[in-house]
C-alpha cells in the first residue's frame, strides 16, 4: 500500500515544483504599448529628478554634476543583507547602455533583468510599477544623454536564503500591488501628489513599516518605520503625526528646513535636493496629498 503511494507523492511533488517554478518566473513587461511613442528628454529629466535615480546610483560622495554619473557603489544595509547600487550609466559593458527600451521598462516596472532574473526589491519597482508609460519612454530618452562610466558593479552582500533570486518571485506574488495605496478625492492636484508620493518619489518605501518578509504594511501607509541603517526612526507622514500645514510642507521640500528650525538629514537631504528642482506646483501637490490622507 505504501509502495503504491510513493509514485503518486512523487508526481504531486514534481507537479508542485513545476507550478512553483512557473508562478515565480521573472516575466518581462509587454513593451508593445511603448513602441512608436515620441520621446521628450526634457520631460524625462523631470521624471529622473522626481524618481531620485541619481540619489541612489551616483557614486558615494558624488557632488554637483558628478551625480549624473550613475556609477553605483552606494551601500544600503537592511535586515536581509547589504545591497550595493549597481552601475546604471549608459556604458554598454559596465552599465545599461546595451539595453532596449523594453529591457528598461521591465526593470523599472517589473523588477526583471534582461537575462530574466528578478531584481531585489531594494530597487523600488514596487512603487515604480505605477509609472506612466510615457514617463518611462521620456526617462529612457533622457538616460541616453547621461555620461558613460566603466566602473564595474559590485555584488550584493546577501547570504542564504535571500541570495536565491527565485525566492523574489514569491515576494512579488505577495507584495506587488497594481492598485494605489490609498483612495483619495479625484482632483488634478491630488492625482499629481499621489503619483509623486506613491510612484516616482517612492516615499512609502522608507516611510511605511514593513513585515518580517520586507513587504510594506499598507494598513499603516506612511506611518513611519525603523531606519534600515539601525539609527533611529523614519517619521510618520500621516496627518495625525505630521502636524505641519501645507505651506510648511512645501517650504520643507524646497529648503530642508522644518517649522521648528531643524533641518533634514540622512537620505532625506538628497530627497530635498530633488524636490527643490521640481516645479512649485509639484511640492504643493505632495503637500495636498499628505494632508488628504485618511
Automatic annotation (TrEMBL):
Pfam family, one: Cytochrom_C
UniProt keyword Hydrolase, yes or no: no
Signal peptide: none
Protein name, UniProt field: C-type cytochrome
Entry-linked InterPro entries: Cyt_c-like_dom, Cyt_c-like_dom_sf, Cytochrome_c-type_DH
Source organism, top-level taxon: Bacteria
GO molecular function: electron transfer activity; heme binding; metal ion binding
Regions annotated as coiled coil: none
Domain Cytochrome c: 39-147, 188-294
Keywords tagged on the record: Heme, Iron, Metal-binding
